[in-house]
Amino acid sequence: MERILITGAAGQIGRTLHRGLAGRYKLLRLADIRPVTANGPAEEAIECDVTDPTALAAAMRGVDCVVHLAGVPREGPWEAILPNNIIGTYNTFEAARRNGVRRVIFASSNHVIGYYRTTQRAGIDVLPRPDSRYGVSKVFGEAIGRLYADKHGLSVACLRIGSFRERPEDERQLATWVSPRDMVELVRCAIEAPEFHYLVLYGVSANARARWDNPAAARIGFVPRDNAEDYANEVAGKAPPAGDPAAEFHGGSFCALEWTGDARRID
Length: 267
Description:
- The chain has helices at about 10-20, 55-60, 80-100, 135-150, 175, 180-190, 215-220, 230-235, 245-250, 255, and strands at about 5, 25-30, 45, 65-70, 105-110, 155-160, 165, 175-180, 200-205.
- It is α/β, with parallel strands linked by helices.
- The termini are far apart.
């Protein structure tokens, strides 16, 4: 994998990957609807809207691997989620297929399993329980990744990214935090791993309180180095009250957004 495309390169994770992967590959192509600055002869910056198949096809030319980050990065109205996170993700996989891209790394999210209780561990084989329209869009991305792996032979890795921050900001993130350093290492491993068909991994640091089982990490050689427990004293007491959906379920505050449900009915 020598020629890498990052969609959504102007976003928070995209900028971190740009810094962390700079100089590693023959080409690092940075695509976003917002301005991105290329640094050096091995980088290219292009404007690309993932809702535009023609623009995506141009961005894919000559690429070995796509890291697909583009889209609405949090919960939002359906009118924003549908074109950017669902149609845009379909467009990305289809453009990759049409242009002979060998591998797609899809930025999924822990919010695909948000409505599992915090007392339950979640592996990669649990059924989806999305906590938001955003979470639904990531379930769709994982499903279409599976389709394109099985039907068209793409190598696909879906990264269920946890709480990407410089440091944990509340008690939930002592379990869900992924540090910038570990995020870069996860993506690097997914890009450079020997051939695989389809994998789902959690993007999470080596947190002592982690609730997610991550067996595929070993498959690509990902060994996280940071531990949210180092910041436990800083976030002590920063948690929603007992009984709040944000405290009861893996998805945290996303579970409480627009909540009108009955937690007693969720097993």
